[in-house]
């Protein structure tokens, strides 16, 4: 059994899809912990990424939100006392804008902008009479050591590019069972609808089926060139939203009103058509966890 004292990085996933992708990216997988803290209800997957020993936990099935994630993080830190940093990494719906051309399969990394922390919780705000939204608070920013790492890595990627696409394809070759659900969908499926076009709440069909393919409802975007990173990594403030708030017009409000907010409404898969993160059949998720959002962190 593995020694819990050897693990320094915590990784929390909200749903099973995120957990499958997280486990697939472990360079090696370890045996479970020999002992955990009393009353710890988490189930852990242990492994190594690079030089770091990593512990992965996933939220209980059907239970989402800040309270549940906080409980998982608390129990993890009790059972693995040497964890230095914890990360929330997973899928999210995007709210692209003219400034941020965010597309299916892109990666969003939360980072402070304009003196604001890297994650904007939509609940920390209020809607006033004219229906406009005013933020009233942000979550604390990540520790400096992580922000420094983001600066260094983003600089390396800007200079030399990255191998994310190749890494994903390597994993899919090693794990053929994941290809159908986790392969990158065709770019033609990445349809960006106008914000007022809302996916019917009672429909599980694709956006094309539910909302139609009328070009007047779409925001047309040119294909990315070979000189552009694909997937692209975006850095900035991300937004976290309660699962019950999922409409297209809602999702754009914090993006336009909070300067440099990037686009990731991250509490749950969204049903608004303009935030579709899945393939036309709604059953495929790109292994980079669609819009892979490094949404925030906890540390001690």
Automatic annotation (TrEMBL):
InterPro entries: NLR-like, Nucleoside_phosphorylase_sf
A GO biological-process term: nucleoside metabolic process
Molecular function as annotated in GO: catalytic activity
Gene3D superfamilies: Nucleoside phosphorylase domain
PANTHER family: AAA+ ATPASE DOMAIN-CONTAINING PROTEIN-RELATED (PTHR46082:SF11), ATP/GTP-BINDING PROTEIN-RELATED (PTHR46082)
Protein name: Nucleoside phosphorylase domain-containing protein
């Amino acid at each position: 059994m593995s020694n819990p004292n050897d693990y320094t990085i915590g990784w929390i996933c909200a749903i099973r899809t995120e957990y499958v992708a997280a486990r697939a990216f472990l360079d090696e997988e370890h045996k479970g912990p020999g002992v955990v803290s009393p009353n710890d209800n988490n189930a852990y997957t242990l492994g190594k990424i690079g030089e770091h020993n990593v512990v992965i936990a996933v939220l209980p099935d059907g239970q989402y939100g800040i309270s549940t994630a906080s409980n998982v993080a608390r129990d993890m830190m009790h059972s693995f006392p040497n964890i230095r940093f914890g990360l929330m990494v997973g899928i999210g719906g995007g709210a692209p804008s003219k400034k941020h051309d965010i597309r299916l399969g892109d990666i969003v990394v939360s980072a402070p902008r304009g003196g604001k922390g890297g994650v904007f919780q939509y609940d920390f705000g209020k809607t006033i009479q004219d229906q406009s939204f005013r933020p009233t608070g942000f979550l604390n920013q990540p520790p400096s050591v992580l922000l420094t790492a983001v600066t260094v890595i983003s600089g390396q990627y800007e200079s030399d590019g990255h191998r994310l696409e190749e890494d994903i394809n390597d994993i899919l070759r090693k794990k053929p069972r994941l290809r159908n659900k986790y392969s990158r969908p065709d770019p033609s499926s990445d349809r960006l609808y106008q914000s007022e076009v809302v996916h019917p709440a009672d429909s599980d069909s694709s956006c094309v089926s539910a909302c139609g393919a009328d070009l007047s409802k779409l925001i047309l975007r040119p294909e990315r060139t070979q000189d552009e990173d694909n997937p692209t990594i975006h850095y900035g403030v991300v937004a976290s939203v309660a699962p019950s708030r999922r409409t297209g017009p809602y999702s754009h409000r914090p993006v336009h009103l909070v300067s440099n907010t990037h686009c990731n409404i991250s509490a749950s898969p969204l049903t608004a058509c303009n935030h579709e993160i899945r393939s036309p059949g709604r059953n495929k998720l790109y292994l980079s966890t669609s819009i892979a959002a490094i949404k925030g962190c906890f540390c001690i």
